[in-house]
Amino acid sequence: MFFSDLRDAEALEEFTSQSDGPNIYPDLEAALERFEEEIVERTDSTARSVIAVPLERTDFGMTMAPEDLKVLMSYLDHVEFPKGAVLCRAGDQADRLWMLTRGCISVWVDAPGGRRRLASIGAGCTVGEMGFLTERPRSTDVIADEDVVAYELASSAANKISKAKPHIAQAVLRSIARQLSDRLRNATEDLRMSHM
């Protein structure tokens, strides 16, 4: 096993030294998932929830020209979800996406081995863009891990943007393409590193 420094090893030891004996997991993914859940449980969610990211510092804000983002904001709805709220479920119509400005969500999928968390996504990131872009039903459940504040872009608003401000619609599509490209690159690198 590799640790980047002694603190990582000590932290892992603290989480695994339970009085009821060693924990056994079916695979590395399950073990890592459990440790991540434990870390999240031990972290003060109140402290995490107060961290707010302005729209200008979200995925969209970082990939769009400021003047385009300002126009886009007039088409967005400000929404809030309490901890445990379901933003969407697998099979739902993908008619909106969310730009998180506060809080954290988890993306869950039902797999043959049981329910698995695919990702934990926090403030500054976009959620729901894949289904929004493809207009296919949602493939995962998205659940608020803590109170979430976001800007929501509904497909009806996107259609209005396309008609009234086509250059803004193009900027939105470019932003989504950049975000998906970045995520694909990261997934490719993670896969490459997992086979080293």
Task: Provide the fold topology.
Elements (H helix, E strand, L loop, with lengths): L5 H11 L11 H15 L2 H5 L9 H5 L2 H8 L3 E5 L4 E3 L7 E7 L1 E8 L2 E9 L3 E2 L1 H6 L6 E4 L3 E7 H10 L1 H29 L2
Helix pairs in contact: 5-8, 7-8
Summarize the structure.
The protein has 196 residues and is α+β, with helices and mostly antiparallel strands. The protein contains 8 helices and 8 strands; from the N terminus they run H-H-H-H-H-E-E-E-E-E-E-H-E-E-H-H. The strands form 2 sheets. A 4-stranded antiparallel beta sheet has the order 1-8-3-6. The chain has a 4-stranded antiparallel beta sheet with strand order 2-7-4-5, with no helix packed on it.
Task: Please give a structural write-up.
The protein is of the alpha+beta class. The chain folds into two domains: 6-42; 47-194, Jelly Rolls. It has eight helices and eight strands. It has helices spanning 6-16, 28-42, 45-49, 59-63, 66-73, 129-134, 155-164, 166-194, and strands at 77-81, 86-88, 96-102, 104-111, 114-122, 126-127, 141-144, 148-154. The protein has a four-stranded antiparallel β-sheet. Helix 5 (66-73) crosses helix 8 and helix 7 crosses helix 8 (166-194). The longest helix is centred in the last third of the chain and has 29 residues, at 166-194. The two termini are 13 Å apart.
Order of helices and strands: HHHHHEEEEEEHEEHH
Q: Give a quick account of the main beta sheet: strands, pairing sense, barrel closure.
A: 4 strands, antiparallel
Q: Give the name of the CATH architecture of the largest domain.
A: Sandwich
Number of domains: 2
CATH superfamily of the largest domain: Jelly Rolls
